[in-house]
Amino acid sequence: MDLELKGKKVIVSAATRGLGRRIVERFLDEGAIVSFCGRRASAGEPNPSDGEVYSNPLAGDGVKEALAALSDRGQVYGSVVDCGYFDQVTDWVEKAADEMGGIDIVVSNASALGGIPRSRKGWDINYNVDLMSAVAMFDTALPHLKASGNGAFVQMSTITAIESHAFGESGFSYGAIKAALINYAHQLSQDYMPFGIRCNCVCPGPTYVDDGSWGFLEEAMPDYYEANRLKHPAGRFGRPDEIADAVLYLASARASWITGVNLTVDGGFTRNVKY
Q: What pTM did the predictor assign?
């Protein structure tokens, strides 16, 4: 099946590692032009958002290393952006549109993740990074999506948004903000389908990525890791390519009649009936 993504201009936030990185790789392999962002210029550099409230152990590559690794796959651009700052996101989206000559597809992937302390600062971090970066991306890209005539917005959420949270009190802000993103994407789908812009969500279940959270937990909390693996009907976690393929399908012309959908991609991990 030809997804008709060759030459499409795509932006993906928070994509130097993990699922974001796999999504960028998939788009490039399909012949798309991609601009991505990440918080570090190079591996080992400190994150401006890290500190006593939120310290992310998943350092991973910086933009420089990711760009070098991805450049052989196709036309790709990388920028250093802290998605917790609205103006940095809008500046990057405008820059990406100038570099690529427009924007056809937006993938909002930035997240502060779970495990943030239950505090005002913790709520602010999830609100700014997860929710407001998505708003900044869509609103800034909107004129370009309208000009595309066949634009697509894909919002990455999580199964934590659709069932009881998995992080104790530290998961309150994460699950609540991710649930808000599902509602936000659905509202966009109603307002912008007349312009040919489709807006959908993808909710991944537990997905194993070497440089992602489950790769970290396998080493740091092996009992917790194994208990969650055994809960899964398939006896394994999802693979990043299985999530990325769902994103590409929803962003592609093959999904031209799909909008306002929250697609759960979890291999049956969640038990709710998905009407």
A: 0.91
